[in-house]
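Technical appendix A lists one of the benchmark inputs used to test multi-chain prediction within the project. The record comprises two sequence entries:
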Amino acid sequence: MVAAEPWQTAEVPGPKKALVVTKPEIVTAMIKKAKHPILVVGHKAVETELNKKKLIDLMIELAKKAKIPVVATAHIVSEFHKRKYKPAGFMPAVDIGNRLVDAEWSGIDGKGPHDLALFVGLPYYMEWTILSGLKHFAPNLKTITLDNVYHPHASWSFPNTSVKDWVENLRVIIEKFEEGGK
Amino acid sequence: MSKKGVNIKIDELNTDVGFIKNLQLSFCKLIAETWTEPMGPTPFPSLTALREWDLKLLQRYKPFYLPYCDVCCLCTFGKCDLTGDKRGACGINMSAQQSRIVLLACCIGAATHIGHARHLLEHLIEKFGHNYPLDVGGLNIKVEAPVTRLVCGVKPETLGDLEEVLDYVETQVTHLLSVAHTGQEGSNLDFESKVLHAGMVDHVGMEVADIAQIAAYGFPKADPEALLVDLGYGTINVEKPVILCIGHNVVPSIGIIDYMKDNGHDGEIEVCGLCCTAHDITRYYKRGKIIGPISWQLRFIRSGVPDVVVLDEQCVRADSFFEAQRIKAPVIVASEKNCMGLPNRTNDPADIIVEDLLNGKAPGALILDPEKVGEVAVKLALKVAPLRKKFKVIPEVDEVIQRAKECRQCNDCRRACPQDLHIPEAMKAAATGNLAKLADLYELCVGCGRCEHACPVGLTVHSFIVKAGEKKLKEETYKVRVGRGAIQDVEIRNVGSPIVLGEIPGVVAVVGCSNYPKGGQEVAEICTEFANRRFIVVTSGCSAMSAAMYKNEEGKTPYEYFTGEFTSGCLVNVGSCVSNSHIAGAAIKIANIFAKRNLRANYEEIADYILNRVGAVGVAWGAYSQKAASIASGFWRLGVPVIVGPHGIKYRRMLLGRADREEDWYVYDARTGEKVYVGPTPEHLFYTAETKEEAMVMIAKLCMRPNDTMKGRAIKLTHYVDLHKRLYGTMPEDIHLFVRTIADVPVTMKDEIVKILEEKGWKETVIPDPTLLPRMIRKKKE
């Protein structure tokens, strides 16, 4: 178990730090509890290979099973389409962040404000700053990062973990939906 | 404009009116005006003179704050926790605090350019006199200082005329900086307005610096065919003594070049530069060479090639003196802003300084007289070069392999690396004798050296990467077109109409520093893509260097196969950082020369024109310094959106539009006074892109303006859709927001787009004569 400290060593956040996800089941429980979660997937999900699968494939699996609308950032929407999955939307990372701080925004699917946002696959420093913007300016929103690095500006974050443990964590999160559904 | 002080003293005067004794009259200045244009509403604007315009922009492009950390630590009441609704001990909240930090950054940036301008101007006036004429382009440039004319309402004609302009901008920066003091502004939007003010005065300062040096030093005068010169490590003849100049203020470098020429050493010594001084060296001296951007500092010094290192100001690594000592290269520091702890030897005889540096009595010297810098540097280089034998500190391959075996795989280097480079994996391979992975990192590395300071066993990781990539480094031989300075008035006339009507799809200014997410290659790709698409592409500074570091199949660099003329399908290098003012100047001149809008102190109207009609976008793919922040904010106030690379998100806030909020996208139709929906054009004012692909699509999108003609909008949409389909693999989902009438739809995409319009319930709108300023609405004649 690696200590819960920021992945980039100099990125010291301040007094309010993310709670550490010690068990992946916590994430599943939070998604199930949320009324209207959203999953934001950055371009590194296409570059990151986990046990011969791409991170994006795992995210599609999660989104389908947990019935979470997905926002693809950067240019990777076609990667979803190639996998026969249509995300609820695609837009720049800063745009989705900017909309999430708006309590009156009707959500990516028009079904109302989101109460939980999950982030994965953005460059560390972009995810760091966007999560910070949400921490400070979206008080009604909980955030979780699904990356294997500690993001103190999230509400909940995994600590810095190995790729092996990361894959295992994601597998457990997804499997729990298979068992219980949403 | 010419002015002089007048004093009249009369001891005794006997007149019909009476007897006058000891009369003294003093006029601080008499101004002989040659500029007949009437004065506009905002000459020498105060902090709040343009606040209303700023608030219009900020209403549409609201700040999205991205705090770097939760606290404020500027005063001793703190640190203060500003999370949530908390306020600090001074009462400030988080959004205001973020704007305050941005203001500080922009003040630093503006002060840097303005301080540079002041130093340069004082030196040039001392050398050439107050009345030296400001010729920056002969008959081709009648609007010699568009930013200054616009902001200050004066038309400078001589070097001396620029002093008053600098007095103004220095005053403004002082006021702005004072605003950041505890207990001043409490509103984030007022801080933001002042950020824009800082950017505006920064552009004035940059313009002063560049037009002064162009005029006095004979730099290319708005020359589209400025020389092609050498760029890259591989262009240096290491057999010759090498003087390396680092920084931004070319004055000491010119001292070197002049001394060399005057004393018969021209051609005997290599004079090369890193960062913007390098640009300005080549604007003055055709044998000068550019090594590369700021991020090449460590790798080039450590290569051992420089025999003498001369540092001026800005963007000089704080450890460059230490690094130069490691290769036993003496250092001359030449700026009072960057003394590096060295003794002031300005008043010592040059030969004594040379001897002291040569014998190692002193590792470096502070010399504040540029002519003396020239003499010492040249004499020293000639003497020290044969002794040094290019002593380098980059290890040999065997040493890299041996030392890589000490790597503990702790990941600290990777966690310190701003690029998150996979250094531990590369070290693991290197330990087995395979340097290929380290070599792959060479082009991605921004050269900051944080990895080395993080390494617990003291491995010189950066040098390992450079060694592994040495073949690439030595093959770096490119051509870059010398910074040409301003854009000619006639070029503006030629492109003004197609730009404003939208037939030239946009002007893309690729500027900024060199912390590129995937290497400088991306900058070259962005420039090449848009020049090929017949956009006008302009560059400056480190980006202009990176744009050169790419060759096509024929071995040619982009500057060799794109024209240097400011026209459709060009690649224009305006010059160094201070030359960025010419990019803003070109946008201003389109409004003034092409559209005949009054320029003089008429800021709001010109900015309104640019925002609504000139499809210009700034791209700082390597957004890094405080100067880049202030340059960007000067563009925002003028209505030019700026895209930054992913590292730019650390600027702490974006200015983002909301395409989904229809109410944000209304303008006045100046013909009728009606409010008209024009779609999100341009959608953002300051925006971070996560990837090069995203940036390229956004560049095309942000070039759209409300004033585009139907033909122009169709051309712009063609590029937007084409890039979106190629890079995103899909049609854009917001296409309906940009189609005003069916005639806007590109013919080749008609079926596809019309189908989308129908699905989205699109309705036709009118194309107005757009303005955000009610006073621009033309009254109907009675």
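The first helix of chain B runs from residue 51 to 60. The mean pLDDT of chain B is 95. Comparable benchmark entries are summarised in Table A2.
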